[in-house]
């Protein structure tokens, strides 16, 4: 069997998705997700110009060798563009292997470790009351874990909160350039402990709570927040601080027992090796699309298992249903899986383009038993939703100083 063609699609059913189709001379094909929010065309070009020509004629069954060829065999290792491209090819090859074997990918990864994949839902509100009402809806729907985010009083916009009210482009002000948002740690600190205090008052221990800081705090501020939130028993506090310097997490860890999670922007084990090895974190949030596919995430998960770190893959709406499927297979077959972020199956257009039979049942995703990854991609539908340039917002302090993402 030989790889005969590699096609790259950029489509926008409300969000941009980069989809890769690896075709073979035997008719069987595989799909992969290469979406890199705000940098989609860089990955599409990297794949078309630099990756695809090297793979034509190779045996698609040689997944590990092709992964190493694209990673180790290249002078310019690592980085989000390279690793998203490798990820998409890798997912597509696992998809092909599953179809050839007539087995779902989780069977190729070792089989089921659990009956379903526990997920956490999002409750985003303009006020604390609004957020808590949304938590109630999530509990009603059967979710066992919920991430709580509330708009910060006194700031014009809060990242991640407008998501429920507007579409992605409205959220960005329909501007072709990155929108700018304010940040104030003082204002945020007034809000967050009250949010979780009231959440525990209203819901007791019915569900796990989580919270995403989106890296807006310095390490010592994160340490303080972790301490403030200890009484409310979070499952984890996500992206408290940036960790380009991984030792930032040593500082945070010394001060708080609130469990810590990080990793949605990480591309390889090297971005999180020290944090895992020193047990400064509890959950590693790498996504198959951004950390070298199923092969990349599997390597990181196995390393993390040695240090009692569990996986909690990123599950934002800017990862396509193909990545969602890759995670569902990995999570089903990975012993040290912790929890999966889940924001629904996408809008109507998205569901018309990407078809699958994954189910949500009582707060758990039940993996598909279809051969391969279990997702179909409708090319005609995809063509109707053209790429639209889009950016994530930029963060500034109230005096205009550019601030952390
Ligand atoms: C967030 C994401 O889901 C999350 O945890 O951090 O919404 C993230 O901001 C986006 O995926 C950025 O592309
Ligand atoms: Mg996050």
UniProtKB/TrEMBL annotation:
<dbReference type="InterPro" id="IPR029065">
    <property type="entry name" value="Enolase_C-like"/>
</dbReference>
<dbReference type="InterPro" id="IPR034589">
    <property type="entry name" value="D-mannonate_dehydratase-like"/>
</dbReference>
<dbReference type="InterPro" id="IPR013342">
    <property type="entry name" value="Mandelate_racemase_C"/>
</dbReference>
<feature type="domain" description="Mandelate racemase/muconate lactonizing enzyme C-terminal">
    <location>
        <begin position="128"/>
        <end position="259"/>
    </location>
</feature>
<dbReference type="InterPro" id="IPR029017">
    <property type="entry name" value="Enolase-like_N"/>
</dbReference>
<dbReference type="InterPro" id="IPR013341">
    <property type="entry name" value="Mandelate_racemase_N_dom"/>
</dbReference>
<dbReference type="InterPro" id="IPR036849">
    <property type="entry name" value="Enolase-like_C_sf"/>
</dbReference>
<dbReference type="Pfam" id="PF02746">
    <property type="entry name" value="MR_MLE_N"/>
</dbReference>
<dbReference type="InterPro" id="IPR018110">
    <property type="entry name" value="Mandel_Rmase/mucon_lact_enz_CS"/>
</dbReference>
<dbReference type="Pfam" id="PF13378">
    <property type="entry name" value="MR_MLE_C"/>
</dbReference>
<dbReference type="GO" id="GO:0008927">
    <property type="term" value="F:mannonate dehydratase activity"/>
</dbReference>
<protein>
    <submittedName>
        <fullName>D-mannonate dehydratase</fullName>
        <ecNumber>4.2.1.8</ecNumber>
    </submittedName>
</protein>
<keyword id="KW-0456">Lyase</keyword>
<dbReference type="InterPro" id="IPR034593">
    <property type="entry name" value="DgoD-like"/>
</dbReference>
